[in-house]
Write a structure and sequence with these properties.
It is a single chain. The chain is an alpha/beta fold. It is built from 15 helices and 18 strands.
Amino acid sequence: MTTVHSAPLTAKLNDLTTPDWWRQAVVYQVYPRSFADADGDGIGDIRGVTSRVPYLKELGIDAVWLSPFYPSALADGGYDVADYRDVDPRLGTLEDFDEMLRALHGAGIKVVVDIVPNHTSDQHEWFQEALAAGRGSAARARYIFRDGSGPDGSEPPADWVSVFGGSAWERVADGQWYFHNFAVEQPDLDWSNPEVRADFVKTLRFWSDRGVDGFRIDVAHMLTKDFVDPLPSQAELDAMPRDGNHPMIDRDDVHEVYAEWREVFDSYDPPRTAVAEAWVEPSRIPLYARAESLGQAFNFDLLEADFDATQFRRIVGDNLALAGKSGSSTTWVLSNHDVVRHATRYGLPDVERDDKGRPTRKHGNEWLLSGGTSPVLDTERGLRRARAATLFVLGLPGSAYVYQGEELGLHEVAAIPDSQRQDPTFFRSPGEDIGRDGCRVPLPWSASGSSLGFGDGGAHLPQPEWFADLAVSVEEDDPRSTLALYRQALALRRLLQTGESLEWIDTGREDVLAFRRPNGWTVFTNFGETPYDLPDGGAMSLSSHHVEGRELPGEATVWISGA
C-alpha cells in the first residue's frame, strides 16, 4: 500500500467557524443567470438564489461560489464586467445581495464571489473614458493601447489571436488599437498601472466588508504583461516557454499583485479566502496556492481526463503532491461553466491523446458541432460513470467543487438553435467551436411550466424536453436519483471527513482503484466493466450503483466505513 499526504491539517475539519474551513469544503458553483428566476423575466437573479437556500442547505454544501452577477452587457456571460462594485439591475440590487448573503450565512453556507481582474467590459466607465480621452491619455494608460502596424497604422500591432477566435486587437475611431485576449468587448487592463491595482484592492474590500467569505479569481495567471516593441508574432508567442517570463501568461510578477491582495485578505477576521483559476504548468501551481499568495488553486486535470483508472490515480497523486508543496489543499472539479458536463463526457468515446497524454481536442466538441448526433451519446453509461466518479472525488482529501445541475445528473444540451446561442466563442469560431451554452441552460426545478420551475416566464436558453425527467421535484421523490445520491454523499462525507491524507490499497487490478482515509473510510472504484469482489471487513455505507453482496459492479464506486 502507498500513502500520499498533502499539507498537515491545523483546524477541525468541516467546522465552518474556523479560518481553515475551505480546506476540505464542498463548494457549489451557482451560475446566477441560469439558477433560479424570481421575477419571471427569463434570467436568473439574486432573489432567485435566495429562494433556493433551503434546497442548498438540504443538499449539504459548505459554500456557494457565485459566477459574475455584476452589471454586464453579457458579451461573455457576465465575465465582461461594467462595474465591479454593484449588481446587474436585471439580477437585482445590492440590498438583494445582502439579503441573499444573510440567508446563506443563516443556513451555515459560506459565500465566494467571482473577481474578473484581467479585463473589464468595454462598457466600463474607465474604457469609455479611454475612448473619449484619446492617444497618450492617463485614461488609456489603464488599458493596453498601441499604434497599428503598416504604413498608415491600419493593421493590428501583431497577428495575435484571441482565446475566442479572431484578432486579439481592435481598432478604435482615432486609429489606435487595444488588446483583448478574450472577446472584443473585454479590453485587457494594464496591471503595471498603480491606479488599476488600487481600484481592485478597493473592490476586494467592498465585498469583504459586506461579509463575503472568499473570492474566485478569473484567469489569475494572465494579469501582468510585458509587451516590448517590436511585438513578437503569434508563432513566436506560442513557442516561448511558460517559465515566469512569458510576455502575457503566468508571469512571476503577477505574484506581486497577489501578495498585496493577501495582505487585504488577512486583515479580516477570519481571513478571506481565494482560489485561483490558473491554467499553468503543474510545477507552477504552488506559486498561486501558497499561503502568501491566493492560498488555493484549481486543479483542472479531471476536466480533461477520461473515465480511466490510470489517469485518475496519476492525477490524484500529482495534485496531492502539489498541495503538499504549497501547504494548501487541492481542489477536485468534474464540471463547471466552461466545459461539457461530465455525465456527457463519460458517455462519449475517449479523446485522442498526444505522446504526453494530453487531449488533442476539446472533449465533446465534435459531438456538440453535430448537434448531439455524432458520435452517439450513451446517456445511461455516461451518468453511471459520472455517479461513480463523483463518489470517488468526494472521498478524496481536499475541497470539491460541484457545478449546479450535476447533482441532478444533467447532461450537456447540444441542440440549441444558432439564433438562441449566446457564447462569443460560437460567433467568433464558426464551425470550429460551438461554445459553452450547453452547460449553462437554466435548471429544471419542476416537471412542468414554461421554464420547468426556473421562473414564471421562459428561460434565456432553451431547455430540452428531457430536462423535465431530471427536475428537482421528480428526483426528490426518487430515493435512487442522482440528487438523493449527492445528498447522502455530502451528509456522509461530513461525518467521515478526516485528515488530509490517503493510503492507496492494492486491488490486484489496474482498472480498480481503492484508497483508505485515516479513520478507516475506504473508497473502491471499479473503472472497468468486470465486477470486482470486495474484501471482507467494514460496512458498505454508500454506493453509486446497486451492489449485490460484496461484488462491486463495473463502473461503480462504494464507500466502506470501519474497514
